[in-house]
Specification:
This is Class I SAM-dependent methyltransferase family protein. The protein has 287 residues and is of the alpha/beta class. The chain folds into 2 domains: 85 residues, Met-10+ protein-like domains (GMP Synthetase, Chain A, domain 3, 2-Layer Sandwich); 179 residues, Vaccinia Virus protein VP39 (Rossmann fold, 3-Layer(aba) Sandwich), CATH 3.40.50.150. It contains 9 helices and 13 strands. The chain has a 7-stranded mixed β-sheet with strand order 9-8-7-10-11-13-12, sandwiched between helices.
Length: 287
């Protein structure tokens, strides 16, 4: 959930219009925790009073945190500063009828991915075997398990906190019997897997090329892969077209042919830069 106009309204109320004009980031609500992303040109201290006012404005928020860095590192986390309310970063987050326990300071969380979680789940055919190469605390895997009726889901993540929460969340949502969750580096683990998968999820755009390279070791004809990537484009339509062309060309480097059957623009990440995902059927694998 996001409250885009609210942050600027609060800033104008407590700091004045000059500061409010500089604050353009949205608020992200994760369970009962509010997260503000810090603009680079403002000090952390300014946000303390905003955090206190935010608690008064949103009664369901119990803790407010300031994200002071972008997502960084292989574990995909941010650095945070506590602003107001309970000094607690663990919460329970609800999405599509599923519940997820997580610590916002220890795992990657982006509520904007919620639409794509269900978009993928709706594509899954009964009894599919699914691999999620970068599973985090489990939203793609668990929502897929709940609504897609796969026979088996293998989830991998290098962040040990994410793996702990993914295992707990599989239990909370009563899908643990379908899920195997491994702590480790998917880029090393995947090429050594002995089974083939019907569908492979790759929700880590920074590792787009490496993820496909690893996945091509275990795909079969008619496998569906869902790579994520960053793409520069003038608009969303162009972003999807360029993403499809980029993915198709990269897969063909491995002697396979690919059919693009769908895709989605997750979000804009900078002017003329988008986070996208593409749905691809592997049609023919070179021998």
């Amino acid at each position: 959930m996001s409250e885009e106009p609210l942050l600027r309204r609060i800033a104008e109320k407590v700091l004045g219009s000059d500061y409010a004009k500089l604050i353009w980031r949205r608020i992200e609500i994760v369970g009962d925790i509010a997260i503000i992303r810090k603009p680079f040109n403002l000090s952390e201290d300014i946000f303390k009073v905003i955090g206190e006012e935010l608690l008064k404005s949103l009664s369901y928020v119990k803790s407010v945190w300031l994200a002071i860095t972008p997502v960084y590192g292989i574990e995909r986390t941010r650095s945070y500063v506590h602003l107001a309310g309970e000094k607690r970063s663990e919460t329970v987050y609800k999405e599509h009828g599923c519940i997820f326990k997580l610590d916002v300071t220890k795992v990657y969380i982006s509520p904007v991915l919620g639409y794509d979680h269900m978009r993928i789940a709706k594509q899954i055919r009964k009894s599919e075997k699914i691999l999620n190469m970068f599973s985090g605390f489990g939203p793609y895997s668990i929502i897929a398990s709940k609504y897609g009726k796969p026979s088996y889901v293998l989830s991998i993540d290098i962040n040990e906190h994410a793996v702990k929460y993914a295992r707990e969340n599989a239990e909370l949502n009563k899908v643990a019997f379908l899920n195997e969750i491994i702590h480790g580096d998917a880029l090393l683990i995947v090429p050594s897997l002995q089974r083939k998968f019907d569908r492979i999820l790759m929700p880590f755009p920074d590792l787009f090329e490496k993820a496909i390279e690893a996945a091509m070791m275990i795909v079969k004809e008619e496998s569906i892969v869902h790579p994520h990537l960053f793409i520069e484009a003038r608009n969303k339509r162009e972003a999807l077209i360029k993403s499809a062309e980029t993915v198709k060309k990269f897969i063909e480097k491995y002697g396979a042919s690919a059919e693009i059957i769908g895709g989605h623009v997750i979000r804009g990440v900078a002017p003329h830069k988008y986070h996208t995902t593409v749905d691809v059927v592997i049609k023919k694998i070179g021998k």
